[in-house]
Write a structure and sequence with these properties.
The structure is a homodimer. The first copy, chain A, is α+β, with helices and mostly antiparallel strands. Helix content of chain A is 29%, strand content 25%. At the A-B interface, helix 1, strand 1, strand 2, strand 5 and helix 3 of A face helix 1, strand 1, strand 2, strand 5 and helix 3 of B.
Chain lengths: 330, 330
């Protein structure tokens, strides 16, 4: 680790994990934080709660398909949902740069409120701080959320077994690509929108599978590749992907090629990846809707890896994200 | 309201309230947010929870008596405590400027962990985002917290009645003054430390008063004056302060005079202000410890105001904070 924080430390990949494990977990170590999952499980008078937080620094603040307000709400709703909980309440902290236009702020807050309503939840607590011009880049939002844990499921990488199946709820890489192109640095246009959306309905439907549902996540920063690497480590088993089965829109795939980025590493903000028992694949596909796909399976391995079978019959190792090809994507 | 966000909008005073009510509350309106208290009350399976968030942008990050890590934890612990709840779990979101020294980050996270342990709670969830050099001022932290509400109390300005007594747990204005002098812009030295500390023990002791405890707050941004104005509005009654009874250290008072600031408007980060029934004053003073003081009383009034009886026998109106004499104090 270098002696200063780098952009890669915030990318959700290998450096991020190092910063989180070597520094934050080391200093704050406790049993509830240790799983480093999307939400911590907390018991309140015997009621099991999920509790999560995420900071949003996306640039630009408004992008095709959404804005930072909607993104911040959906992101926290999704962290609660994939932890097997029903979102109960949200909180939002705003750090605003002096001089930020009030009408833009109102549009973003409106969008956050609409996203919360769509997920059946409210922003019940908030805070606003203003910093001098130049001390922030417009606006940062940190959302936190509480969810009520579904007692029918026990979700953990430790419950994932060889033979289990990996499914994704729809096509990947759209959020990251939409935001990259929205920055205008590429001098290219692309008709792709962010997929920012709540996945609480799909997640709740999967909870009905009970024991057959092993684990869920929303593959945000670092993309599907990073999420599945974290799964492999936690499960002590490998994930074998069928590359051709992973849904990617043709224009998104072309944009990724142009940028030299593998779509597996690009952030999604409205997708869900689930591991289920083989007998639950049909029910999972039905619950996730028409865009869902079975993309791989878990297999026993001495060294847990994520592997992809390529269209050409070969197999490649899909490592975690290294560095940060797409900074400030969320 | 001007058409851009100003520093005064973040000061916790009149402009802040305008931004919060006219924009945030207007867009996000729901019954749990509407009281705009330090924490929202949420019900989970019949268990009453307090839920709160605060963003911290204090400058400098390290100041006499504390740092942003400790401040962010104590602030959220205190918002839970004065809402009549026992802190259960904390979450923390970090927005870090690229190039921030890792050893300084470690010291701040360590300090946050130590503050959490001192309050009997853990940071169970977190997030880290890194922004480019120049897109933040070192580090911002947003903490959120869940507390278990004490069933013995029902705290609300609406429960405050004429004749009730106002008490403070110790001397005021130390945090704001310590941070201002720590910036070095004044080219003056002062031996005052921030009072950043958890007040959960004192708050829990007051909860034993049951119905006699009407309302509690921690007078942070905007100081005691702003907190008591919010109380007066909420209660529809006036607060009459005895100015000479309000504990202020002599050197802090002198520093305030030098800066032309009334100590009533300066932020505290480890003090508690409580309104109790007259018969509970003795028990309250005993629970709050040797530095506590009875500083005023509530009285019926057609126009709710905060008034202070001056040492010279006159009475002055103590309005809410207007503008922002001390930006980025927390």
């Amino acid at each position: 680790m270098t002696d200063v924080v780098t952009l890669a430390d915030g990318a959700g990949g290998k450096a991020s994990r190092r910063l989180v494990e070597d520094l934050f977990l080391d200093e704050l170590r406790n049993p509830l934080l240790e799983p480093l999952s999307d939400a911590a499980l907390v018991s309140a008078n015997g009621t099991r709660l999920a509790f999560t937080t995420d900071s949003y620094v996306v640039r630009p603040l408004v992008f095709p398909g959404g804005d930072i307000g909607e993104l911040a709400v959906n992101g926290t709703v999704n962290d609660l949902a994939v932890s097997g909980s029903t979102p109960l309440a949200l909180a939002a902290g705003f750090v605003i740069e002096e001089g930020f236009p009030l009408d833009e702020l109102r549009a973003i807050v409106h969008s956050a409120g609409r996203a919360a309503a769509a997920a059946g939840v409210s922003v019940v607590a908030g805070d606003t701080k203003v910093v001098e011009c130049g001390a922030a880049d417009g606006l940062y939002i940190t959302t936190a959320g509480i969810g009520l844990v579904d007692v029918r499921v026990e979700l953990s990488p430790a419950r994932v077994r060889p033979g289990d199946c990996v499914l994704v709820s729809g096509s990947i890489a759209e959020h990251g690509i939409a935001v990259m192109f929205a920055r205008g640095d590429l001098h290219l246009e692309l008709d792709v929108e962010s997929d920012t959306a709540p996945v609480h309905v799909e997640a709740a439907a999967l909870c009905a599978l009970g024991d057959d549902l092993r684990w869920m996540r929303d593959p945000t920063r670092g993309g599907l590749a990073t999420t599945l690497n974290e799964l492999a480590w936690g499960a002590g088993a490998s994930v074998l992907l069928q590359e051709t089965a992973i849904p990617v829109r043709e224009d998104v795939r072309a944009a990724c090629e142009l940028l030299g980025i593998d779509p597996l590493y690009v952030a999604n903000e409205g997708k869900l990846v689930a591991v289920v028992a083989p007998q639950a694949v049909g029910a999972t596909l039905a619950a996730l809707g028409p865009h869902a796909a079975l993309i791989g399976e878990v297999r026993a391995d001495d060294v847990p890896l994520v592997l992809a079978q390529t269209p050409y019959g070969g197999t490649r190792i899909v490592d975690m994200l290294v560095g940060d090809p797409l900074p400030r994507i969320c």
